[in-house]
Write a structure and sequence with these properties.
Number of strands: 10
Distance between the termini: 46 Å
CATH class: Alpha Beta
Number of helices: 9
Shape: globular
Structural class: alpha/beta
Largest sheet: 10 strands, mixed
Order of helices and strands: EHEHEHEEHEEEEHHEHHH
Length: 292
């Protein structure tokens, strides 16, 4: 039987250069890759961003040895819509451009998938022609680049993000009302390990920028370093308890970090994953909560 297509879509903006890290990790194992880029080079907040057209094209040409990559340009900023609304609109437009069928995987340029080849094999074991489903994996969030390495976030429970689906439809970021299946894989999320200018640009244009005090959090981020990182607890900008503490790993760049990083054992056992990923058990749990 022919295996379903693996379609990967990246949202591309001011941090497009991070695709140099993200694309090579998925390129050999994807059937097609779409890069969604705003025609006018505007963020979801309507702000123009610097974009080196020549360097971008050269990067894509160097990676795209098998002609898998397609550029999808459209107007993703709409005046009057909030940043998160623009994000959701772009994700749905990208899904439409990628076409029906196969597994749809949507990633951001700052997400580096560890063991993507094994994840593709995992997807191929899941029936595609079933009721709508999301496949979630765990994030390992990079918090800051230091002189010799990276500070990363430690969580008690896996920080899950929905990335793959058999019926692409998005309501809030990559979230929707579908059943969420947890797959025991990790992505490195290069979300905060950037220069001060890049971090300020990020949080000023982020879909969540209206959900927390960006200036105060920016000052906090600047204060964290290799010597004091162990002093900070519960510091997620939206849900403080979600990020419990920080860890450290050496690496002069992302490639060295990934080589040196000891991927943790997935915090859910095979039995726990079975219980979590069983639709019938999920229905019973939901019914129990309604009754009691």
């Amino acid at each position: 039987m022919k295996k379903p297509l693996i379609k990967v879509g990246f949202l591309v903006s001011y941090d497009w250069h991070l695709l140099n890290n993200a694309l090579p990790l998925v390129y050999p194992y994807a059937d097609v890759i779409y890069l969604a880029l705003d025609k006018k080079r505007l963020t979801w907040s309507g702000n123009p961003f610097e974009f080196d057209e020549e360097a971008f094209q050269a990067m894509v040409k160097q990676i795209n040895t098998e002609k898998k990559i397609q550029l999808y340009e459209d107007n993703f900023y709409v005046e009057g819509l909030k940043p998160m609304q623009c994000e959701v609109r772009e994700r749905n437009l990208l899904a439409k451009a990628m076409g029906e069928g196969g597994w749809h995987i949507q990633l951001d340029a700052d997400e580096y998938f560890i063991h993507f080849a094994d994840f593709v094999k995992y997807l191929h074991k899941i029936p595609l022609n079933q009721k709508e489903i999301n496949i979630s994996v765990a994030w390992i969030n990079l918090f800051k680049k230091t002189n010799q390495g990276y500070l990363y976030v430690i969580t008690a429970q896996p920080d899950l993000i929905q990335i793959a689906t058999n019926r692409p439809y998005y309501e809030h970021g990559r979230k929707n009302g579908y059943f969420n299946h947890t797959a025991p894989f990790y992505m490195i999320h290069d979300t905060w390990a950037r220069s001060e200018a890049e971090i300020w640009q990020k949080i000023s244009n982020w879909g969540h920028r209206t959900d927390f005090d960006t200036k105060t959090y920016f000052e906090f981020w600047k204060s964290v370093n290799e010597t004091n990182y162990h002093n900070f607890k519960n510091f997620h900008p939206l849900r403080p308890e979600a990020w419990q503490s920080l860890g450290y790993c050496q690496g002069k760049n992302i490639h060295e970090f990934i080589q040196n990083f000891q991927v943790p054992k997935f915090p859910l056992s095979t039995w726990q994953l079975f219980l979590r990923n069983n639709r019938n058990i999920a229905r019973l749990k939901a019914l129990w909560k309604k009754i009691f």
